[in-house]
């Protein structure tokens, strides 16, 4: 999702597109990876020294409720990123070190046998994410077994 689209969605839903909200969205767009509220606090602190952690977290939850950002729970922390531009169904590989994401084309559910699942169930949504090290982090870490 582009920042301008996110700001329009905020206003369409009756919320003000404040400078702080725009700064959070622009930072998420620039970083293009999953970030914690703490990450955003650190990235925004120099330009917005009076921006509180609570304000960042509240806005992230609002953005999530409005479908502007998506979140994952990883390593005991909620992490956020702007919703993808594409409307096509897809999943992500997420680097456990830097939070970078890569699109996984297709859907594993298309080929996953659902043996034993009651045929009368209706699946309405699902998530499938792979976690590991991106090529850059893998080079920096060296011995992969050290982080696993």
From TrEMBL:
GO terms for biological process: negative regulation of DNA-templated transcription; regulation of secondary metabolite biosynthetic process. The keyword Transmembrane does not apply. Its cofactor is Zn(2+); Mn(2+); Fe(2+). Signal peptide: none annotated. It holds the Pfam family FUR. GO terms for cellular component: cytoplasm. Keywords: Cytoplasm, DNA-binding, Iron, Metal-binding, Repressor, Transcription, Transcription regulation, Zinc. Binds 1 zinc ion per subunit. It comes from the Bacteria. Zn(2+) binds at residues 95, 98, 134, 137. GO terms for molecular function: DNA-binding transcription factor activity; transcription cis-regulatory region binding; zinc ion binding. This is Fur family zinc uptake regulator. It comes from Brockia lithotrophica.
